[in-house]
Specification:
Blueprint: H1 15-35, H2 40-45, H3 47-66, H4 77-83, H5 103-106, H6 115-123, H7 128-149
Length: 150
Amino acid sequence: MTKSGLPDPRRPPTAAGAIWGKFIFNSVMNPIGAVVQGVNAARYDVPEMRALIDAMAAECIRVAEALGIRLEFDPMYLVKKIRAGESRSPQHARSMGAGHRGRARDRARGDDRCYIVKKAKVLGVPAPVTRAIYRMAKGVEYAAREAREG
């Protein structure tokens, strides 16, 4: 079962490890969704975006490890299944580029509000890709707000 990305049933799960797995997934996919304006195919079919997603995930996982968090599952498990054609991409992601508001968008407002970037800095864990994507997401958010408001 562990080869498929599921946790080892012999190891007791931790809430922190499960929560951080989902948090890492969201921390990577939400700002990427904003940058590609909710076009899921761009996340999965464009090699450069795939490389950004992988680099961000690796940085986020290194931050979790530096905090002593033992992840209960591969945070990018669903992404890998979608890339392999074993699953469809979620439809709700389209709202990320459509100017919709939400907590995920709030996390993309800049380095000072991005927990992963903040923690990476404090821990001395390099996270240049995550920092750059969050900065881009901040610009995308601003542009969407300006387009909505006139």
